[in-house]
Amino acid sequence: MTIASDFDTELASHEIYSDPERMHEMFETLRREDPVHWTTAPGHPPFWAVTKQADVIEVGKHPDVFIASPKSFLMNDVEQRVRIEETAATGGKLVRTMIHMDDPDHKKYRGLTQSYFMPANIKRLESVIQERARALVGRLIEKGTSEFCSEIAVWYPLQIVMTLLDVPESEHPYLLKLTQQFLAPKDPTLRRDGPDERGKGAVAKEYFAYFGKMLAERRAAPLKEDLGSLIAHATVDGEPLPLMEAVSYYVILATAGHDTTSSSMCSGLYYLLTQPGELDRLRARPELMPSAIEEMFRHGSPVKHFVRTATRDFELRGKKIQAGDEVALMYHSASFDEEVFDEPRSFRIDRGPNKHVAFGFGIHACLGQNLARASMRTFFTELLARTESIEVVGKAEFIASNQVGGMKTLNIRVTPSKQSTTDRIEVAA
Ligand code: HEM
Predict the structure, then answer these.
(1) Do β-strands 47-50 and 326-329 pair in parallel, antiparallel, or remain unpaired?
(2) Which numbered atom of ligand 1 lies nearest the CA of 263?
(3) Which terminus of the chain has fewer CB atoms gathered within 10 Å of its CB, N or C?
(4) What phi and psi, each to the nearest 5 degrees, are found at residue 271?
(5) Domain chopping of the chain, boundaries
(6) What is the pLDDT of residues 200-229, one digit of tens each?
(7) What backbone phi and psi angles, to 5 degrees, belong to 63?
């Protein structure tokens, strides 16, 4: 089946993600008619779009064939040229995180913090998470009406991750701005000012200046329990991490750790409020909270895609992928695959089983998923306990990003519950 080339242009674009209806139609067509689709958009390097869950998993099972270096996200020709110039100027890469690595390095670097993100350790972090949730729900109640995404959701995971890295609260707003610019380089309101093709390189430089200083300070001090200190004092093959890899470790935690969770909070709340009956059902049956959160991850799937590069020829669903081809794993599409999920577009707090790939699959599967689950459960438990009603006011908007995205604007009004606590903790912003 041949799909029209203007369709390919949409598939390669960022804008399609700001229109969920159109985006869903596009992916439904692809999953039905050409699930492993060779995409040739003008001004864009060609790539395979893998849209069904079974194929995303199949690619994830072969990390030696589908490698994470040299490219993580789709880029158009101009972005690619600029990136090559920028990286040549820095003598290599803008950043080199575990997401950009393949084995054996990937395993070594991931292993440095793997146990930190295991459920047993996440339990130890409960008080940090709880304190942040209570403070932000308190602020929401105090305001009555607010724009949930920018006033509440973006702060919550940011504050958690930055607390784990031991970054002072006064610097959270600056790091939030950098992260948004890094992850939504094309969104008209979130992107950096100026010629946006160069935005990412400039943001990476700022990250390096900030985290490079932090690294030096942590290395000069004795090892402490925080994640920032752990990375500063870690060794690989008996040597301290090189500057690029150490700073990149901070960058990946700063970026991967909060934009994704805040997007899930916004879209999760939006669908909980707009899918008839679901909020009341969750209030009546709080034991459904874990499955409701899982459905928020699936339905929001904030990581839209990641790219792999084929090291050798490989046949996938009858298509002949050749060595050197780019393969885009369309995680968002895979989480709506009709073959896996009954009525995938409907948001069901009791969906089960819910084997989505919002956290990816294989050796690169999300390291922070236990932290994301704990953060979301704590926030929504607190929110429901302390409010009597929550309603959407006005029109909701979605971010134009094919990398990490979701909702941009969600105006809500809350009424406190009678038992609402009055505890208040001062937070940034
Ligand atoms: C709703 C929340 C989140 C979602 C949907 C999400 C999604 C993902 C996805 C899809 C990947 C795989 C990327 C690939 O295929 O290459 C990934 C990797 C990763 N995530 Fe998350 N993430 C979330 C929260 C977090 C948090 C809270 C942290 C840590 C603070 C985190 C840290 C990481 C790291 C370090 C990786 C790289 C793993 C590797 O390459 O081995 N994420 N995440």
Answers:
(1) parallel
(2) 1
(3) N
(4) -75, -30
(5) 5-416
(6) 678 888 889 999 999 999 999 999 989 999
(7) -70, -15
